[in-house]
Specification:
This protein is α/β, with parallel strands linked by helices. It contains 4 helices and 5 strands. Helix 2 links the parallel strand 3 and strand 4. Helix 1 crosses helix 4. The longest helix has 15 residues.
């Protein structure tokens, strides 16, 4: 069983989450609505980048859930596309015993005018490929 959980302020990460979820045949869920994870699910977890960190609500979601031994795939969007938020999520999850199987990051529109058109159709296609690869893990 797969779960796709995300935090997005501007909609960039939501687009990636919905693309990944569609490839897995599940629904993407915002951390704003998701209280707990299903037992033994493989979780795709993502966030936008806010001052090189994942969103605060995603950090709180990580703090209140058990990830020991859980398979995880991480994703994120940022103005730079460098994945600082993904690295920060990985550090938080590893400290809680999660098994990180892979990660994906891409650019997202920032400040309403930087990176317009991101995530692009090409980036979303790569997110689908990432989901397909992680299904094999």
């Amino acid at each position: 069983m797969f779960e796709v959980v995300y935090y997005s302020m501007t909609g960039n990460t939501r687009k990636v989450a919905e693309t990944i979820a569609a490839g897995l045949g599940v629904k993407a869920e915002s951390v704003k609505e998701k209280k707990e994870l299903a037992k033994d699910s493989f979780v795709f977890l993502g966030s936008g980048c806010y001052a090189s960190k994942p969103g605060g609500k995603l950090r709180k979601f990580i703090a209140r859930n058990d990830f020991k031994g859980r398979k995880m795939a991480l994703f994120g969007t940022s103005g730079s596309g460098e994945g600082h938020e993904v690295k920060a999520i990985e550090e938080l999850l590893k400290a809680k015993g999660a098994l990180i199987k892979g990660s994906f990051c891409c650019k997202g529109r920032a400040l309403f005018f930087f990176n317009r058109g991101h995530p692009s159709n090409e980036e979303l296609a790569k997110a689908r490929e990432f989901a397909n690869e992680m299904k094999k893990s």
